[in-house]
């Protein structure tokens, strides 16, 4: 059994009781403690976390084609231990998925997840104007110990319309992940293009991800934007 906790906002603390397996971004381990000698080891995943080699190979190919590829490391734990993980002083956000619940997340923002999460990539059809293309990584809870840890540049902002059905609008280059109550709850893409874009006088906010009040969703964004997106203009 694994337990995820944040330590000083910037570090993931994983407590293991018994034997278990953890999947993390390659190279994310920073420290560990265990009684009676080190009882955990690391393996680089050449394909993916799937147990079936054909599924792992197909998943690896899908991630490379969609540019959602994440170098993963497998941590094999044989007994009680506490290990710590971090990445470039980024903030860590933890979420525990219910069985069947899915989080859609940018691959670069994944820090770690437990074996009770199904990791895959799917097309969302809205990536023509987003930084990461037409696909997103997904993690789906398959058991009671489905933990996900994601990375954020700065303190995260959590937006939710689960109780008040408000419309949520965010910059695609600031989105970390989103979770919906039913299905994948993908956003609509809203464009705001005019003749000003053609002469280089755009506001810089020409497109957005939008969830209506009829789409119950929670969205995590970071106070930092990736470099990318569509730039329309005439020199």
What is the 3D shape?
elongated
CATH architecture annotation: 4-Layer Sandwich
From the alpha carbons, calculate the radius of gyration and give it in angstroms.
Answer: 19 Å
Strand content: 35-45%
Domain module count: 1
In short, what is this structure?
The chain has 235 residues and is mostly beta strands. The chain contains 2 helices and 19 strands.
Protein described:
The chain is mainly beta. The chain has one domain: Double-stranded beta-helix (4-Layer Sandwich). The chain is built from 2 helices and 19 strands. The chain has a 6-stranded antiparallel beta sheet, with no helix packed on it. It has a 6-stranded antiparallel beta sheet with strand order 11-12-9-16-19-14. A 4-stranded antiparallel beta sheet has the order 1-2-7-4, with no helix packed on it. The longest helix is centred in the first third of the chain and has 14 residues, at 53-66. It is elongated. It starts with a strand and ends in a 14-residue tail after the last strand. The model is unreliable at 126-132, 194-204 and 229-235 (pLDDT under 50).
Which terms summarize this structure?
six-stranded antiparallel β-sheet; mainly beta; disordered C terminus; 2 helices; 235 residues; Double-stranded beta-helix; 19 strands; single chain
SSE layout:
Blueprint: E1 2-7, E2 11-16, E3 19-25, E4 29-33, E5 40-44, H1 53-66, E6 72-78, E7 81-85, E8 91-96, E9 102-105, E10 110-114, E11 117-123, E12 135-141, E13 147-152, E14 157-160, E15 168-170, E16 175-180, E17 188-191, H2 195-198, E18 207-211, E19 217-221
